[in-house]
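User: I've been trying to design a sequence by hand for this structure and keep getting stuck. Would you show me what you'd pick, starting by listing the structure so we're on the same page?

Assistant: Good idea, let's start from the same input. This is the structure you sent:
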């Protein structure tokens, strides 16, 4: 399915705000974010893995610069020289409406809400006060970007992922957002689909490793 660059910009803006990074800027037919981390210096995002992405890649010599596109990993692989490594597939997803409650938070856990950078962060804490699950949502100009949803290993298969997503979605509902976006791993995709999310497109990543 074809994805508009504006939709990827909405996602990338939320991703950047959640990390306190500069907002994405236009780069030819794509977007660029100056990440500035040792393990990720910069990321370029394109709708397709065609000439614009290939021209971008041709000017990159340094490691830890990332290329991302709304295509299958195999398509990104074909577009790039062998030196580029391709990460495991991910999925660009959208939820067209509020998520319907399917469960409540188990009694042995409690929710804690904070703000970090430009994101609301919800932690589900166990009886010892340790983080059992954590997730973030950025609310920006009518879009809710859900980010880094994680349930720690000892607490999985207890419905915490669902409870966490519903708690984050409650914040989105209060803000009156009309658009919900996230990028999912293969492991997370099933949970989100059960909550009413739909896959818009694949979302693939390539990078040059250190030599």
């Amino acid at each position: 399915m074809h994805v508009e660059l504006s939709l990827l910009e909405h996602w990338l803006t939320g991703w950047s705000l959640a990390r306190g990074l500069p907002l994405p800027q236009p780069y030819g037919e794509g977007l660029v974010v100056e990440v500035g981390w040792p393990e990720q210096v910069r990321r370029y995002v394109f709708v397709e893995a065609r000439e614009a992405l290939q021209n971008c890649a041709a000017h990159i010599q340094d490691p830890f610069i990332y290329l991302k596109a709304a295509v299958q990993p195999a398509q990104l692989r074909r577009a790039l020289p062998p030196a580029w490594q391709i990460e495991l597939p991910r999925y660009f997803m959208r939820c067209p409406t509020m998520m319907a409650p399917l469960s409540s938070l188990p009694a042995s856990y409690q929710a804690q809400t904070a703000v970090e950078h430009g994101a609301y962060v919800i932690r589900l804490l166990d009886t010892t006060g340790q983080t059992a699950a954590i997730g973030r949502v950025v609310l920006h100009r009518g879009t809710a970007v859900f980010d880094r949803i994680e349930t720690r290993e000892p607490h999985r298969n207890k419905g915490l992922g669902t409870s966490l997503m519903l708690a984050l979605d409650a914040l989105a509902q209060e803000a009156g957002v009309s658009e919900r976006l996230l990028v999912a791993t293969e492991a997370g995709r099933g949970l989100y689909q059960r909550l009413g999310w739909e896959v818009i497109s694949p979302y693939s990543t390539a990078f040059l490793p250190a030599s």
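That's my pick for every position. To get oriented when you compare it with your attempt: Residues 160-175 form the longest helix (16 residues). The chain has a mean pLDDT of 95.
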